[in-house]
From TrEMBL:
SUPFAM superfamilies: DsrEFH-like. It comes from Marinobacter litoralis. It is found in: Cytoplasm. The keyword Membrane does not apply. Its main location: cytoplasm. This is Sulfurtransferase TusD.
Length: 136
């Protein structure tokens, strides 16, 4: 597609307390349908809650972490949670579990934990970086 764009999506709002993850997912689906590409998704601040494997919403609510994980896997889109934001909020992968001698890890696949370099790279390699904030 000649006018195709590449996007990096940055989500800073938590699921269930903001519309940021929901709006970002609706945008991502629409962008792919229009022939654009999502280069990566970066979670920052409260947005890292989207990558928790321990979220368990009521059965009558949409499970946003599950929805995002399925979307990312289906389309092969890489997604990272900021390491500083994740550690502050008790979100760890196997590496951080071992480093801090924790009893468990709770990062949902396909998310990975990464530094801000991942965000910077997305800004450099994408045509546009879009931010989905949590308000305030």
């Amino acid at each position: 597609m000649p006018n195709s764009l590449t996007y990096t999506l940055v989500i800073t709002g938590a699921p269930w307390t903001t519309q940021a993850p929901q709006t970002a997912l609706m945008f991502a689906r629409a962008a792919l349908s229009a022939g654009h590409r999502i280069d990566r998704v970066f979670l920052y601040g409260e947005g890292v809650h989207l990558a928790s494997n321990l979220s368990s919403p009521p059965s009558d609510e949409i499970h946003w972490p599950h929805e995002w994980a399925g979307f990312l896997t289906e389309h092969g889109i890489p997604a990272a949670a900021c390491i500083a934001s994740a550690l502050r909020r008790g979100l760890v992968d196997e590496t951080e579990q071992a480093r801090y001698e924790l009893t468990a890890n709770n990062l949902r696949s396909p998310f990975v934990i990464a530094g801000l370099g991942e965000w910077v790279e997305g800004n450099l390699t994408s045509n546009k970086a879009l931010y989905f904030h949590g308000g305030n």
